Amino acid sequence: MKKMLSLLLALVMVLSLAACGGKDNTPTPVQQEGTDAPEQTEGEDSGSTAEGGDAGDDYHIGIVTGSVSQSEDDRRGAEAFEAAYGSDRIKLAIYPDNFTEELETTIQTIVNLSDDPDMKAIIVNQSIPGTTEAFRQIKERRPDILCIAGESHEDLPVIGEAADLVCNNDFVSRGYLIIRTAHELGCDTFVHISFPRHMSYETMSRRAAIMEAACEEFGMKFVLETAPDPTTDVGVPGAQAYILEKVPEWVQQYGEKAAYFCTNDAHTEPLLKQLMEYGGYFIEADLPSPLMGYPGALGIDLTQEQGDFEKILAKVEASVNEKGGAGRFGTWAYSYGYTLSAGLAQHAMNVIDGKSDLLDMDDIASALQQYSPNAEWNGSSYTNASTGVKSDNTYLIYQDTYIMGDPGHYMGSAQVEVPEKYFTIS
Predict the structure, then answer these.
(1) pTM of the complete model
(2) Which one-letter DSSP state was computed for residue 62?
(3) Which end of the chain is more exposed for a tag (fewer CB within 10 A), N or C?
(4) Angle between helices 336-352 and 361-369 (to 10 degrees)
(5) Which CA distances in Å does 216 have to 53, 179, 188, 191, 321?
(6) What does 151-175 look like in DSSP terms, one character per residue?
(7) Tens digits of residue pLDDT in 90-110
């Protein structure tokens, strides 16, 4: 018996040593051409890189975005994260373009990801109507799944109750900073373009109110213009055709010193195209990016630069300058939608791997910065304008504004202290 036990123990030790000396089975994501999965540098904590650190392949992460036609940057960021870690681990889904009319389909698209027994986190960017209900249903079925909302279209206090984490662009600070930047560039009028559905959202209506108040402070005229909603029967083509037709009239009416802003991605390209030709200023998009509207408006191909935002910005800026737009057009150097999709997924992975805290703003910023390495960010917890209460799981973030020119320059927006009065305007 003793001899038999000794032989068994020896066999176990041999097998253990063979396993330890074998190949490391932790998958290393391959950076495909056209993606910008961050590279790990010497001495860097592996938990804060896109290499995934100790993350194994025993869990999945889901990312839900709009389509390329509606939200290209959001989708490309999700695809970049999938390319870094593989489609066997990262599961992508697309909600309907006409999500307002297909609410049940939207909800089901998100909820379906929770059918996967290995699913550990679901990120929705942008979090269009239906996301809150989808998260509620997921939590009832699978409370272990992290539910993360990027750029919510639903009231933040409401979605904050269903989601584990919510991250939105800082509509409060940006409402002031966009107007301040327009004023610094010499603009005398600010034209805000939207439609009733968007203006029913607290984030967008509150930002518009802040913009109007800031215009008053800086002695500028504030104008509200209405354009067709691309999710209605007119669709994206009809909405874009309207913008193409109206911009020349607006420029004639408001002058070439007017700055324009639209709340919908689909409106951005035709707006930029016409402003480039007829005059006017564009500080930054609703969800800023050098990819947001600029390639189509300028007629440039960025296939070779895909995923490299330094090269993308340089090519866009060169084209803007060539067409006479220097000093009139701005953006964020790194796509917000792209960064948010990939960065929130990276943050979820870091949290699951035990390397980050879900509600630590520094950890969130660190994950986002992997996809925007040279950008300066600022932000704060969301404050309810009615109650003055700060949320513990909802954050508002923004990146410094870059104005294209010869040379282009950052406006230093991330360093500006926004007057306290703007945080209570609603």
Answers:
(1) 0.74
(2) E
(3) N
(4) 120
(5) 50, 10, 11, 14, 31
(6) EESS-HHHHHHH-SEEEEE-HHHHH
(7) 999 999 988 988 999 999 999
